[in-house]
Amino acid sequence: MTPFGMIMFKRLTAFLVCLITSASMAHAKMITQLVPSLTVSEEYKDNYYETEDDPYEEWITTYELGFSLGFIERRGQIYLAYNPAYKDYKNLDDRDGLEHNASMSALFQATKHTTLSAGIIYESGQDGNYEGESWQNSANASVNSQLTKTINASLSYDYSNSYDQQVRTGEWKEHRVHNASTGVQKAFGAQNSIGANLSYETDAYKNSDADEYTSFEPTAFLKYWFTRRDGMETNLEYIDKKYDTLSSRDYNTTAGDIRYIRKFSKQLDGYIKYRHYYSDRENGNHTIYHPSVGVDWDITEDSGISIGVGVLCNRWDNSDNEDSDDPFLDLNAYKVFNFSPKGSFSITASSSYDESDDEAASLGYVINYRAGCSFSYMLTKHLSSRLFASYKRQDYKEKDIDRQDDTYNVGGGLTWNPLRWLQLSANASHVNFETNDASRDDYKSNVVTVFIRISPEQPIRPDKTFSKEQLDNEIFDYNSQGRIID
Predict the structure, then answer these.
(1) Distance (Å, whole) CA 482 – CA 443
(2) Is 486 helix (H, G, I), strand (E, B) or coil?
(3) To which H or E segment does residue 295 belong?
(4) How many CA atoms lie within 13 A of 128 on its CB side?
(5) Kind and range of the H or E run holding 17
(6) Do 291 and 310 contact (CB within 8 A), yes or no?
(7) CA–CA separation, 419 vs 422, rounded Å?
(8) What is the DSSP letter of 485?
(9) Is 361 in a helix, a strand, or coil?
(10) Percentages (nearest 5) of helix, strand, coil residues in the chain
């Protein structure tokens, strides 16, 4: 970790400690819970290094002793967890050893209208790479304040320093990301609002890399209803991104959209939308004209389905990219269907096009599609089942790149709870990654995991609620080896 990163990490740690102290002393009445757990698992991977040819099989036995400590009171909550695990590899004996996973998070209601939150995560261990190393340190802090009855302001900072797999090359590299953002929002009327946000982000690698960048991004939005049934919303954004080692990729992007909304019922809207996108680039300007029409179905306050159809008219100001007029499906969906007391079916889907984020910044303009589903059912009083499937597509259309990545993932598992404190589980998953880029291998990977866990009770986590973000993490952001997230 760099000196600057270490300083920021220590400052956020100090902030979290202050938050813990403040919350602990705020009220004497507090719920305290210490929950130990013991887990023994066996994991089989038929393609440990995720290669196209000559897959390497590995069996890993893990012994994990975990502790979680929660403090809950009226104005705040604190959660601490530490889960050391010893891993025993059947073939890669030099990787046998102790791994660590520790976290702290806190939420404190400083005043009636101001909330403070912070968190720290430390993870170290092994992963499917030839170096035999994988780790991550991350921290975050945020302040959210209701300045007046109609004005809300926020300030946040996120930091991560990790050694993980790079999307562009598939290689494992160390890099650190800093992101600071602030925003303000004003409500006027029952459904009208206006706001602005500003963010600054840097991504730096330990060794010089094409994905290093500095980004500055202001955004603004307005939502206004002319009548009870007719409204509009508009968004504006500006991105100034500069690369440390690849100046030919520097760009300034200005984008905006306007949408007319017609309310057909309390939950169903129809819309007509136009988005304009202009990117002033060192290697040739890029313009997008995007008209679309669709519907919004607001099922509940935190779930809904938005579907639209339109055309992406791409115009490139260079001889290497061909102009195109392609159909585009606007998607933003999340819904949990509880069809019986025993079973539920969840869906999530989204689509977007923009500049690549910190996972593959230098690949430039990208079109993203992803969709997934999860099915859970209680077979008996103590036996539950789960199936899931997902598809993710990333189309990189930048000059000299024209790359497409497709990732398919299917899996499922059974969990048996014969006793309140005893859990046995068996999970399996299959991942299929395909790309037309020569710098990365296609690969297929199968993972089977069985484990037994002993825990007297579940830890208190009132801050944990099932949401679209959590479902997306479980389906799309699974471990690179296909491990199912519990």
Answers:
(1) 12
(2) coil
(3) strand 286-300
(4) 25
(5) helix 3-26
(6) yes
(7) 5
(8) P
(9) helix
(10) 10, 65, 30
How many angstroms separate the CA atoms of 125 and 98, rounded? 8
Q: State the Cα–Cα distance between residues 451 and 474, nearest whole angstrom.
A: 18
Q: Please provide residue 109's backbone torsions phi and psi, each rounded to the nearest 5 degrees.
A: -85, 90
Task: Output b/e per residue, 33-45; b: 16+ Cβ within 10 A.
Answer: eebebebebbbbb
CB 358 within 8 A of CB 203: yes
Tokens in use for 100? Answer: 């660590």
pLDDT at residue 479 is higher than 90:
no
pLDDT at 314 over 60: yes
Question: What average pLDDT score do residues 354-372 get?
Answer: 84
> For residue 433, what are the CA distances in angstroms to 158, 188, 397?
30, 48, 19
Count CB-CB contacts under 10 A for residue 319.
8
User: How far apart are the C-alpha atoms of 239 and 342, rounded to whole Å?
Assistant: 47
Within 13 Å of residue 251, how many CA atoms lie on the same side as its CB? 25
Nearest to 456 by CA among 423, 420, 431: 420
pLDDT in tens, 93-132: 888 889 999 999 999 999 989 999 999 999 887 665 666 6
HSE-up of 272 (CA within 13 Å, CB side)?
A: 3
Among residues 308, 313, 397, 309, which one has the least CA distance to residue 360?
A: 397
CB 361 within 8 A of CB 285: no
Whole-prediction pTM: 0.81
Distances in Å between the alpha carbon of 54 and those of 151, 264, 441?
59, 58, 12
Using CA atoms, how far apart are residues 103 and 137, in angstroms rounded to an integer?
10
- Name every residue whose Cβ is closer than 8 Å to that of residue 403 and which is 6 or more positions away in sequence: 363, 395, 396, 435, 436, 437
Biggest CA–CA distance in the chain, Å, is 70
The single-letter code of the amino acid at 405 is D
In whole angstroms, give the CA distance from residue 357 to residue 345. 30
Distances (CA, A) of 411 to 28, 45, 389, 393, 475: 46, 14, 7, 18, 10
Q: How many residues does the chain have?
A: 486
Q: Which tokens in the block code for residue 157?
A: 């900072």
Angle subtended at Cα 203 by Cα 198 and Cα 209, rounded to the nearest 5 degrees? 145
The 10 Å CB-count burial string (b at 16+, else e) for 295-307 is ebeeeeeebbbbe
CA pair distance 459, 365, nearest whole angstrom = 43
Strands 324-337, 365-378: pairing kind:
unpaired
